[in-house]
Design brief:
Blueprint: E1 15-24, H1 28-37, E2 41-47, E3 50-59, H2 62-76, E4 81-88, E5 93-97, E6 100-106, E7 109-110
Antiparallel strand pairs: 1-3, 1-4, 2-3, 4-5, 5-6, 6-7
Length: about 120
């Protein structure tokens, strides 16, 4: 029996996200398989040493989708690197490097601290 720890994403309704990602140290077939696992519709383009992915996918959160995508890539090649920007239907932008959230902004504007 496996234990699944509760997360903040539990109970959220699926949202549509657009992802733009740069994937390095992977191959086109692994990326295609990972996108199919997410049921994403999009394109993969070779750029120098990396692959550029642009896709649209539904899921509970950008964090969960990012985790699922990177985990699928790393099952094939542990060295895979993911730099991704996820834009939700409400225009919230979340930028990740591998599993780490680097930046979040709402409606395309950076979050600001109250004065």
């Amino acid at each position: 029996m496996s234990t699944r720890w509760p997360t903040a994403d539990v109970g959220l309704r699926p949202t549509t996200f657009k992802v733009k990602a740069r994937i390095s140290r992977s191959d086109a077939q692994a990326i295609q398989d990972a996108l199919e696992q997410l049921a994403a519709k999009g394109s993969i383009t070779k750029a120098a040493r990396d692959f550029i992915v642009e896709a649209e996918v539904e899921g509970p959160s950008a964090r969960e989708l990012n985790r699922t995508l990177l985990s699928a890539l790393r099952k094939v090649r542990m060295e895979a690197r993911l730099r991704a920007e996820w834009v939700s239907s409400d225009k919230t932008v979340e930028t990740f490097f591998d599993y780490t959230l680097r930046k979040r902004s709402r409606n395309g504007l950076p979050n600001r601290r109250p004065a």
